[in-house]
Amino acid sequence: MVSCLTDWQKVAIGIHGNIMTLIMGRYDKRFDLAFWKRTTKPDIYRLTFTGSTLTAVARLWEE
């Protein structure tokens, strides 16, 4: 997807849940329609990458 980000340390992106799920699903197939249905609105996730590999996902939003 985006390979020019390799020199960046941190990036914050505000995005709608359906697009977020599609992007997350590009890197890990567990993030599918069922995952999207379980998200709250709003919701916040931290994605950690090593190169272009998704290595960790943490939900940060507390209800």
Description:
- The structure is a single chain.
- The protein is an alpha+beta fold and 63 residues long.
- The protein has one domain.
- Helices cover 27% and strands 21% of the residues.
- It has a two-stranded antiparallel ribbon.
- The mean pLDDT is 86.
Determine the structural class based on helices, strands and strand pairing. Answer: alpha+beta
Strand line-up in the sheet with most strands: 1-2
Count of β-strands: 2
Q: Kindly state the mean pLDDT as a whole number?
A: 86
**DSSP summary: helix tally:** 2
Q: Percent of residues in beta strands?
A: 15-25%
Q: Could you describe the largest sheet, including whether it forms a barrel?
A: 2 strands, antiparallel
Provide the gyration radius in Å. Answer: 12 Å
Unreliably modeled segments: none
Oligomer: single chain
Helix content: 25-40%
Which term fits the overall shape? globular
Instruction: Give the H and E element order.
Output: HHEE
Number of domains: 1
List keywords for this structure.
globular, 63 residues, alpha+beta
